[in-house]
Design brief:
Layout (H helix, E strand, L loop, with lengths): L1 H11 L7 E5 L5 E3 L4 E7 L9 E11 L4 E12 L6 E4 L14 E9 L4 E5 L4 E3 L7 H8 L27 H5 L9 E4 L37 E4 L22 H7 L4
Parallel strand pairs: 2-9, 10-11
Antiparallel strand pairs: 1-3, 3-6, 4-5, 4-7, 7-8
Length: 262
Amino acid sequence: MLLRKSILLVALSPLCLADILFTRPQAGASLSARSPITLEWRDSGEAPSLSDLKYYTLAICAGTEEDPTILATLKNDAKFDSKSNSLSITIDPSFGASTHDNAYFFRMTTKSSTSRNTVHTSPTFSLTDMTGTFPARLVSQLSKRQVAAPGVAAPAVPPAAGAAAPAAGAAGDFNMAFSLQDGPTRFAPMQKQPGKSITATNTEPQYPVSKTVIATTFLAIPEAKTTITQSATDKVSSRENDAEAAAQPTDDMAKFLARWKD
């Protein structure tokens, strides 16, 4: 039992590396959407330091940290207050439902003075007095979580084979160059479909090139654990080719092919 509780607590801890470590809301907290919610954080002690952070984007999410459903963006490119590590947020009750415990968490994308971006998530918590609904996919995801100890969210069950692709998140996540992202969760833009003709004349790279440094010693373990690719919105259809097969050649090509008969 003790081992099980330890595993659950680890699963509930914030999925982030460096600079931001959420201290409020606490894991398993039950908060009301009728009152402002206070967020608090501190420096985790790893680079980049909290003092290097300049801007942040804050979103309210539901589901799991590996496959989040972003319900709303609460702050977009907001400037950090150097004198305060807290923030009061009012949640619109229509953003979601109160049908599942520990369904919610905050997600903060930060940008430092060196243009380094990191993604951080708060512990999961419950919201009461919500008046909206969850999409069917999110309800299914939350319902498949393992049963947890009181006040503690359980780790999510991996999606079954053939399950639907992750929902597209905030536009800013997928539009950010992959080489500029940091943290354990990265985001890749929707894969492009080839056109019927070549019309482009700009040969510049779509995104900035990644900096390359030749390793001279053993490298640290990579921070990235998950890459979420934006779901494709295009539709593909196909049909059988019912055209009649071409006749066999009767000219010199026929003689050439005959040389290879067994």
